[in-house]
Amino acid sequence: MRRKAYFPKKEKSVLEHSSRRNEPRTKTKEAAAIRRTQTAVAIVVICVLLIVLSGFIFANSLGAFSPASSSQIVTAIFEQSSSISEQNKSEPSAALPLFGKTVILDAGHGGYDNGCVYPEGDENPEYKEKDFNLQIAFEAKTALEKLGAEVVMTRTDDSFLSIYARPAMVHLYCLDYAKDHGIPSVPEDFETRIREELRDTIRVNSTDISAGCMGPMVGSGFSEDLIRLLELEYRLDDIIFISVHNNWNSKTGLHGTQVYFVTDESIIESENRLIKNDPYYSNPDYIVRENYYGRDPENNRALARFLHDSITGAVPELEPNLRELVEDNFAVLREQGLASVMLELSFVSNEEDRRLLSDEEIIRQMADGIAQGCIDYYNNR
């Protein structure tokens, strides 16, 4: 904690006190009157300034400091961070390699959800995945912006954000992006309705199906509403989604970077297995639909490959001793149609990987690897 500087009050000298006592009484009274007048004027001016200043602060922060749910705060953060034009930020040069590209960075976990921890079971663990995820995402944001990219972050502080609120934010951003860039989007009446449903998902900010946490994303497969959004997002080639995580395994010898992505087959296999075996999916509010086929898995696979290779190239110690790329089923990847991956950069359960996470220079190198992977993806797409 920074200590407040202490400056002792300066004492008046004996000479100052004695000279005032020897002044004529009339002159002293006149001087005192002048001083009182000056003091009164100064007090009035200060009061006016304070009233004006406090009114300005109150007007500009009323929403931020009024009672609000965590989901409202999260929504405000996302809307602020997703603004395409930021004040006091110069436009990147068209010569930069990621000019015109947008990267949505999703720092996994947050709030009461620590993610992986070490020591496991400790009430106050030294290593919390959520903190490393956010730190790496901020460093990646800096590296990407230097290369000309527009960067959007789903969370910018230690806030909880559900696995369904995150893709809801992505859908809203993509609708805005299409409109801002003149890209044919969706019918206006549909857009009005779906926007409200997505905002409700963010406001609920939960993983409880009965509370409506999934919004329009509820159930297996995809509703017609979601398919409309997916088909819009398949066309947004200049936006990619990267979810930043760190891993854990009871086999503490496992280490290094794995990259996850989704395909139609990986989603269908997982959903069928979960519906059969997991009581969570027998909830009457969960809808079972026909299997959906429509993704182009090669974009996701290519993004995963380029990111893995560039990250491990920047930090060779992160070369994994297990499978590098993994097809799987994660809501933040499944429920939107952008080219997207989930980075599992290291294993919090591995001693050597924890050492890497504790090194700020390594964190910067990870971020540089993420940025270079984005360049390689666009150069080779």
Short key terms for the protein model shown above:
disordered N terminus; globular; 8 strands; alpha/beta; 381 residues; two-stranded antiparallel ribbon; Aminopeptidase; 49% helix; six-stranded mixed sheet
Overview of this structure, please?
With 381 residues, the protein is of the alpha/beta class. It has 2 domains: 27-64; 68-380, 3-Layer(aba) Sandwich (Aminopeptidase). Helices cover 49% and strands 10% of the residues. The chain contains 12 helices and 8 strands. The strands form 2 sheets. A 6-stranded mixed beta sheet has the order 4-1-5-8-6-7. It has a two-stranded antiparallel sheet with strand order 2-3. Strand 2 and strand 3 (127-128) form a beta hairpin. It is globular, with a radius of gyration of 28 Å. The two termini are 49 Å apart. The model is unreliable at 1-34, 51-71 and 80-89 (pLDDT under 50).
Q: Which class do the helix and strand fractions yield?
A: alpha/beta
Q: For this structure, what is the CATH homologous superfamily of the largest domain?
A: Zn-dependent exopeptidases
User: Secondary-structure element order, as H and E?
Assistant: HHHEEEHEHHHEEHHEHEHH
Strand order of the largest sheet: 4-1-5-8-6-7
Fill in the CATH topology of the largest domain.
Answer: Aminopeptidase
- List the domain count as a whole number: 2
Question: Any low-confidence stretches, pLDDT <50, length ≥5?
Answer: 1-34, 51-71, 80-89
Q: Supply Rg.
A: 28 Å
Beta content: 5-15%
Query: Tell me about the biggest sheet?
Result: 6 strands, mixed
Into which percent range does the helicity of residues fall? 40-55%
CATH class of the largest domain: Alpha Beta
Q: Give the overall pLDDT as a whole number.
A: 84
Second-tier CATH architecture of the largest domain: 3-Layer(aba) Sandwich
